[in-house]
Amino acid sequence: MNYETLLQILRLALRVVEVLLGRRAAKRGTAPPPTRADKVVARVAPLAEKVLDRVAPETATAASSRPRRKRRSASFALAQAALFGAIAAGGAAYVVAKQQRRVRNRYWPVRAPFPEELLDVLAAPGSGARLAYTDEGLRDPDTGRLYPIVDGIPDFLSSPISNPVGRGASSLQSLSPTDGDWLRLRELVDPVKPWMLGFNHAGNAALAGAVAEAAGARWALSIPCGRGDYEIEMARANPHMRLLCLSERWDDLLETRRRALELAIANLYCVRGDPNLPPLQDAALGAVWTANGFHLYPEPERMMTQIARVAQPGARVAGVSLVADGPRQSEALVRLAARDLPGRRDVMTHFTLLAAAGLIDLRAFRDGAYVRFTCVRG
Predict the structure, then answer these.
(1) Hey, is 288 helix, strand or coil?
(2) Contact 271/279 with Cβ under 8 angstroms?
(3) Whole-angstrom distance, CA of residue 342 vs CA of residue 345
(4) Do 15 and 48 contact (CB within 8 A), yes or no?
(5) Which residues sit opposite 43 in a β-bridge?
(6) 61, 107, 168, 369: most buried, per Cβ within 10 A?
(7) 250 Cβ partners below 8 Å, 6+ apart?
(8) Helix, strand, coil fractions of the chain, as percent rounded to 5
């Protein structure tokens, strides 16, 4: 309700009071002694009329000019606000609906067979023994443990399976996100945080392409892999290599595979495992890329040591990591998420750990709160 309507209601109420008092006086014939209410109305009514006349004058000239322009301008402003609100609401609804569709498509079974070429590089976590592929899954010949294959993706983090998942299985019910709303919200917010910290996507993509070229026709590793932003470009840059995407998160693996299938990329493989204990053979990879950084793990030196173990001598190792002692504005933002960044170290400590793991020819490129590094397996 706008102010003009309120003024009209107030004016009408004062007129009704005036009429009622006049009728009561005419009915009695003689003017009754004024009551307390009569005195209040007699004092308030003239003042209210003056205020109403100043705020919304009733003259013909004023009614035909100023109030009409005011009403037109107010109506235009209201229509403009409604238009912008509708555009904003429609845009937000479109983004949310698109994200919901993406999440649903990500978890949709594709009934993919197990790529048996993975047996050339996979090994039992911890023991390093070669695995044997059966219709029940991947079996460790030393311990007899059976690792399931879920919709074509080996899973080394599940407990020993009681219901085997065989070739071409598509049982993804256990992978469906239980907190779908929070997952979609997090996926909308997560890309903003690296940008606020100075994340250089173009520079990182160029470095990832160099790693892909260095792999040649050998196997390359992305550990832990992301949502396919760099992995897709690496697979495209060198179609002769085979890129293995390793992560402990199903949503990252499934999103990377979904994008690869949409683009008909055939040299990209997904494996679920612990980046601190990758299920890979020693010296099996020609290049290693790590874009999610070591800052997410309490003991980053464990992953660095494992990367050096699975890389071949002379293999290129490169990546991006969030480090301490960055710009002042970045440090203020990082402190808000310090609990989720237990492995963040300063640059000197970062490279000391890499050198201790057996990586040589270290080079660093500081970029905001991040550092891009490249080195070689000694």
Answers:
(1) strand
(2) yes
(3) 9
(4) no
(5) none
(6) 369
(7) 175, 272
(8) 50, 20, 35
